[in-house]
Amino acid sequence: MSKAMIRPADVQMIPLSFTLNGRLQELAVEPHELLLDVVRDRLGLTGVKRSCDVEVCGACTLLVDGRPVSACTTLAFEVRGRSLMTIEGLADNGKLHPLQEAFIEHGGFQCGFCTPGMILAAKALLDENPNPTEEELKHFMHGNICRCTGYKKIIESIMAAARLMREGRA
Amino acid sequence: MLRRFRLEEPESVMEVSELLGRFGESAKVYAGGTELLLAMKEGLVQYERLINVKNVKGLNEVAPDNGTIRIGALCTHHQLETSPVVKQKLAALARLEQNVANVRVRQVGTLGGNLCFAEPHADPGILLLALGANLVAERTSSKREISAEAFFVDAYETCLEADEVLTEIRVPVPEGKSGVAYLKFGYLERPSVGVAVALRADGGGKSIQDVKIAVGCAGPAPKRVLEAEELIKNRGVDEAKANLLKAGEVAAHAAQAISDLHGSQEYKEHIVGVLLKRAFQNALSQ
Amino acid sequence: MQFEKQVEISASKEKVWNFIWDVDRFIACVPGCKEAKTIEAGKLYSAIMIEKVGPFRVEFPTTIEVLERDELTRIKARASGADNKIGSRMKLSLDVNLREQGEKTVLGFVAGVDILGKLAALGHGIIKRKADQVLDEFAEAVKKRLEGDS
User: Fold this and answer.
1) What would the pLDDT profile of A76-98 be if each residue is shown by its tens digit?
2) Of the residues A25, A54, A89, which one is the last residue of a structural domain?
3) Average pLDDT in the A126-135 region?
4) Chain B: partners with 3+ C-beta pairs within 8 Å
5) Domain total for chain C?
6) Contact assignment for B43 to C53 by CB distance below 8 Å
7) How far is A91 from chain B (nearest CA, A)?
8) What pTM value is reported for the model?
């Protein structure tokens, strides 16, 4: 039982209704609860990671209304009435998303710690810009840090996924 | 974990101001939270109440208004980076916003929040100084327009009163043969040195009619450098170029560079000179 | 961080010296310092130091210890305080000296200031500037107080 479950009687609770990975989710949170803690501890979705805790590394990237945010520095109540996507919601009924397939195919991860954040950020990039140049990709992904791969394989994976997704649509 | 606080969600600027007046230092305006929440997580500040201003309507619009662009304080960096109006009329600002922090901070961080937090290592204030922007602050008893120069007082300190709310940033669109450039340098997460140059040449492009130069990040707050401007203003282009070295030295000194993890004072001052030269040439070429 | 300050005061050495030991009035010259108390006259004092940098505020309950005393010439002291709310400590070493210069007295001091803990996250540069400001204001206040009442 996490500490957060024990609350004083007069505490302010904010009721949340939002879409989590495509499904309606209802929850009540206190104003000070961070999105990262709520997603990991209360919703049990541990793909999102706490790493630098200062919005710099991107390991805590989640998509709110399709746009990347730092869950470590986002108050949980901010997802009220919006859609939240975690890495666990990317695959469609067990079928991997092209990004996930590309990362596997092209070796876009080693230890995998930064990977959920990388893939979600890449998804936001490709949703906004289905045909990015390498420069555009690097600029968008600038805030996601990887300590293992040296980024080359990550870039290849994302570009490959972009091709797959474009062809899929055509 | 953050300490518990009470969330207030007013729906008007007056309500925000009234709350600030009532609760004083125990309450703080909360917009994107990209700076505020970090300080709270570190335990450097504590508040009993956070005033969520994002439900106040009308503060997140970009509107052209007679030679001025009016930017709502709640406009996010992402909004400004992608706004057709900003891209067309204030291209240098759009470019600056595109390069603030990272994509996640740009998504939720607001221009108003950035300016009010007045973190020394920040970009927008410097360019706004060079563009001659004015900031609108409102409270229950008054509304006033503040020049960008007067706004920045010191590190983490603006001239806003305790119950004043920054609502709008008014940026004049550069006229005539003008060029605006903002260049920054940094190798840590935040910029170490930033320089902005906004100039206007005469019809023939042979002399500099007007110039505004601002420096920041290296010192406690962004500043306009009038002394450096004097070396460039109302001079032929060649003469202005010849004065760039001296102007760079003047600007470097004015930056009030502090030696810290971002670099020594001398290093930062040197970079100011380099960036000033490049920003000037960049602006001139436009 | 080391700071060296000097201020010329139109007052006799004796007057300046006595002022220093008039703890309440002396401490009142330090911006942000209040509730000065004598715990052991000539040896141990306490005060509360409150400083602000923008929204960041520290409150250090401080203990000041006099280490050496050369009558009418020199004082060596050290002070320390902790702000547990913010998780920061402050250490100060102070070397005060008085020198006669004609009709005036030159009050000089060398201060070593260390800020430890969370507050250091603000950045060495910011803290250094603030400490410098505080010491400048302190020196000016001492001068004003002494020259004011004559």
Assistant:
1) 999 999 999 999 999 999 999 99
2) A89
3) 97
4) A, C
5) 1
6) no
7) 23
8) 0.92
